[in-house]
Amino acid sequence: MSTRTTDVLWRDVEGVYAAILAHPFVTGLTDGTLPHSAFRHYIVQDAHYLRGYARALALCAAKAPDEDDLAMFCAHAGGAIAAEQELHAELLGKLDLTAEQAMALPVAPATQAYVSYLLATAYSGSYAEAVAAVLPCYWIYAKVGEHLVEAGSPDPLYARWIGTYGGAEFQAVVDAALAATDRIGGSVSETELARMRAHFTTTSRYEWMFWEGGYREETWPV
């Protein structure tokens, strides 16, 4: 039985994922110690990020070689925008911030770097490279959500967020992306697989940096 591409990719980032689970932002969601100001900063940055992520998904759709993947990535791009408009509006409202006010706040360094990398890869890379770059945002969020659902949270705000990413509906979206990745990986050359692995590892590291930026309420140093 041949090794699935997703198994190869995940082995590359097991250490990164362990660092994410141990991060005080993530542990603070379940024990309730995460300051609301840090969560507010994170949600604002996530709104900025998802607009760029939706564009990267749309580029995956544009490069897709078949109609099934084209339709899937188009739907997921629309879903990213819907998540921003629905979940974020609800959470921001409880954090005394409107969507308009959030949009006017600056894009933080980790957010800018992550989105820039995604869009550069999706524009200039192959279809396989683009999919590998966007995959950690799907997969790591689902893994983190699954982990956090088991622990729960005493804070209703955090419990609401956890329920979104730890639920079956989001997992179904992730499973579709994973299946596409395995289909792609089954036909690429060793050189292109190496590029997929490099992009997947880089954007997984950006996932950690995004949690870190939220926890530190990161701003530009100069």
Automatic annotation (TrEMBL):
<comment type="pathway">
    <text>Cofactor biosynthesis; thiamine diphosphate biosynthesis.</text>
</comment>
<feature type="domain" description="Thiaminase-2/PQQC">
    <location>
        <begin position="10"/>
        <end position="216"/>
    </location>
</feature>
<dbReference type="Pfam" id="PF03070">
    <property type="entry name" value="TENA_THI-4"/>
</dbReference>
<dbReference type="InterPro" id="IPR050967">
    <property type="entry name" value="Thiamine_Salvage_TenA"/>
</dbReference>
<dbReference type="GO" id="GO:0050334">
    <property type="term" value="F:thiaminase activity"/>
</dbReference>
<protein>
    <recommendedName>
        <fullName>Aminopyrimidine aminohydrolase</fullName>
        <ecNumber>3.5.99.2</ecNumber>
    </recommendedName>
</protein>
<comment type="similarity">
    <text>Belongs to the TenA family.</text>
</comment>
<dbReference type="InterPro" id="IPR004305">
    <property type="entry name" value="Thiaminase-2/PQQC"/>
</dbReference>
<comment type="function">
    <text>Catalyzes an amino-pyrimidine hydrolysis reaction at the C5' of the pyrimidine moiety of thiamine compounds, a reaction that is part of a thiamine salvage pathway.</text>
</comment>
<keyword id="KW-0784">Thiamine biosynthesis</keyword>
<keyword id="KW-0378">Hydrolase</keyword>
<dbReference type="InterPro" id="IPR016084">
    <property type="entry name" value="Haem_Oase-like_multi-hlx"/>
</dbReference>
<dbReference type="InterPro" id="IPR027574">
    <property type="entry name" value="Thiaminase_II"/>
</dbReference>
